Amino acid sequence: MGRTACCKKNGLRKGPWTPEEDQKLTDYIQKNGYGNWRTLPKNAGLQRCGKSCRLRWTNYLRPDIKRGRFSFEEEETIIQLHSVLGNKWSTIAARLPGRTDNEIKNYWNTHIRKRLLRMGIDPATHSPRLDLLDLSSILSSSSLYNPSQVDNLSRLLGVQAVVNPELLRLAASLYPSQRENPNFFSENVQGNQLCNPQFQNQLPPLVQPNQLQALEIPFSSETHVMDPNVEQFSSNFTNFTQNEWQPGDYAALQNYGFYGSEQSIMDPNSLSENSTFQSNNSNNFSPASLNSNSTGINGSNVSNEDERESYCSNMLKLEMMEMLDVNQFM
DNA sequence: AAAGTCTTCAACCGCCGGCGA
DNA sequence: CTCGCCGGCGGTTGAAGACTT
């Protein structure tokens, strides 16, 4: 404490950089490199502190910076790495060529974090949010298996607007099964996918710790996030119902082990005949195609993210409904 | 069209650790 | 060992643009 911020000294400029300043900084660094950030601004003729120059260069002007939207794979990587590393943005950035820690941090805070919250996942711990878990534990108490009491519970909790009472009943009915058979959900997830012969022999493990090992990140087999554990499912699944599902949750879900790798999900051959996507012109879904410019179904322009998220959300709705066989409840 | 609200992200701030004197 | 400098990091802010009413 006590040390004054470098920019407060000598009336140095603050705030947004002008194109002229950018040019000066770029020219200087391209000619001389950046030896000493403290002396650089003076040498480059900039009324900025060294710190500001370093930031501007590393976060914006550096030639190898990749600008634009994060790709599907990048988003997946961020979620996976964050689940292991936490807010180590610079370490995460080191695994994403062309992306800066600042950019990743911003993207996390403005996009991914919100999605996880929406899904009932605590972005800090990557575990189910305690408030939702509490609901599950309440549901697990035997007296509440009476559907009418579930209704009472939902009224009590004021969750009617969010959770369909029928689905609360479903949750209540599933929960004892889960308790009796800890593998209940994972078996159902796997089993359901395997119902489609085209999924057979295609499914990689839901969780691929070796992906992390390949990244040379210390990976603990105890990392709860990497286990498609049943608790996550039981608390999250209420959020996938009704209109709670939001676009873009796919990547997050995939990271929580609810789905296989994108090869199995994205392979158009693996889509069921009745799939909504068959009516979509974009049959060749792949992460790459999802990121390419395209025209929406109605000929209107749809942004890449819209399209990607639309696909993902539809896919998940279908899969989730199949998996839970919840049609009768809807 | 205007006002209000929300979202995004570039930039700043304060702190920390490494290093050399 | 201590001190000061420097680079780097993560949290936070606020201007600007987007969106909604």
From TrEMBL:
SMART domains: SANT. Residues 272-294 have a biased composition (Low complexity). It is found in: Nucleus. SUPFAM superfamilies: Homeodomain-like. Residues 9-61, 62-116 form the HTH myb-type domain. It comes from the Eukaryota. Residues 9-61, 62-112 form the Myb-like domain. This is MYB8. It comes from Diospyros kaki (Kaki persimmon).
